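Lab notebook, bench 4. The sequencing result for the construct came back, and we need a structural model before the next group meeting so we can plan mutations. Quick request posted to the team channel:

Model the 3D structure of this chain.
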Amino acid sequence: MLKYVIKRILLMIMTFFVITTMCFILIKMLPLPAIKEMGRDVQLVLERREAMGYNKPILVQYALFWKHILFYGDFGIGEQMYTGQEVAKIMLQKMPYTVVVNLYSILAAIPLGIMFGIYAALKKNKWQDHVISTAVMVFISVPSYVYAFLVQYFLCFKFGWFSLTVASRAEADFFSWTMFKSMLPAVIALGFGTVSGLTRFTRAELAEVLTGEYLLLARTKGLTRSQAVVRHALRNAMVPILPMILSEFIGILGGSLIIEKIFSIPGIGALYINAINLRDYNFFMALTMFYTLIGLVGGLVTDLSYGFIDPRIKMGER
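Done. Here's the predicted structure in token form:
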């Protein structure tokens, strides 16, 4: 197990390095934004560009890029947005919005997804199962931004139950009722995908476990159907489901690029889209590294969790 963990961590680091290198080279092949586009703090930006070797070959720039990150924790400053301000500082200011809205979403979506999945598995091949399975396929197939527009139109515009945008920190604290209510449309739009995916996965796993011979043996020993399902079927079905839930919690930091933009949530996702549109190199590289690391760590933790949740699984053995 230890050998497998070390191997996976080294592979993750190598993958992270390769993706970062490719993104750095590709972004540096684009022309630099004109100085006149930068507005204020032009001299500060020019000085930082000189320190980062913008007028030197790409390989030298890449070496300086890693030197500033590893030795100084410096991801650069904003050039096209938040001009002159540190990239890492702005990211930390935006992070709470992304974390809170996604935390609300998964805390509501995970119980609903498991509940619908269990119910569909227990009603396998009946009309309840067909209704839930059809709804799941529809919600999985339709992109999340479609739900976002529908939620905005009906709940925010037509009925007027919620505001179109999220409250600011000046108006309410993150865990206040005002902030939660303003985030609710985004939470609903984000939750559709999580509920659908978890419902389908739970239904598939539990339906397979329910056909096991050991459940028939448990019933012959005198257990009721409910007791057999709770004591045996659910425990075995949750082995592959728990890593999926764990990955959802890790993905909280990643947020949703499109949903944050649609609901004007000042989080990491909206910051990333603006960095791409405005060609702010430092923000783009820092956020690309952040999203890449979140994805790789999520995959690693999910894989390793199988071995810890179920001792029967031996990682790395032939």
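The first helix runs from residue 2 to 28.
Will bring this to the meeting.
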